[in-house]
Input
Amino acid sequence: MEKLEKSINYKFADKNLLVKALTHRSFARDINLSNEKLELLGDAVIELATLEYLFKNYPSFAEGKLSKIKAASVSTEALSSIAYNLRLYKYLKVGKGEAKRKVALNPSVLENTLEALMGAVYLDGGWEKAKEVTLNLLKERMDEIVKKDTITDHKTTLQEITRKRFGTLPCYRLEREKGKEHQKIFYIGVYINEKLYGTGEGKTKREAEKKAAEEALRKLKDV
Output
């Protein structure tokens, strides 16, 4: 635990929060002892910290561009990569079956664990500390995205197009899912005015939504 604290440059006053952040629901006897609620909180912490940073440091950027940079910065790929580099898979407590299947290395599980960790930092140290830890992990990536200016966010692009062309926003629906818990494949459909424009599948809902949006954009170009 001390190694992890050094990695994120934050020392917990309440070690129980850190333990909880690193407890998967497959290991916890009670769902309230798992990291699921902290994950929800941490997701909000990361979103706000990144948006505040972008808002203050890139004031000339339009809302659409800020949204794209934020989306790329907090994507499953980005957050799971950070979690992997922090070796969170080494610290995460999972059930025996999940350990055999190496669930801790699943990108969505890595992402969720990082979010739970940030939620724990917030409860332990408050907003300023949580923001500091979050930006220490994400700031370099955000600045690199801005520098390269190579942002491809199909969901944001689709939203902008449908708003202008149809006067509405796309609606994403979970059509079905298959597979065991933590190894599921999600199938998402994206609808515009109740008409299906694209479908996508992925290991996370976010991934499936992005693929559905990409397909919808291709169809709209042909219309």
Q: What stands out?
A: The two ends are 55 Å apart (CA to CA). Residues 49 and 131 are 5 Å apart (CA to CA).
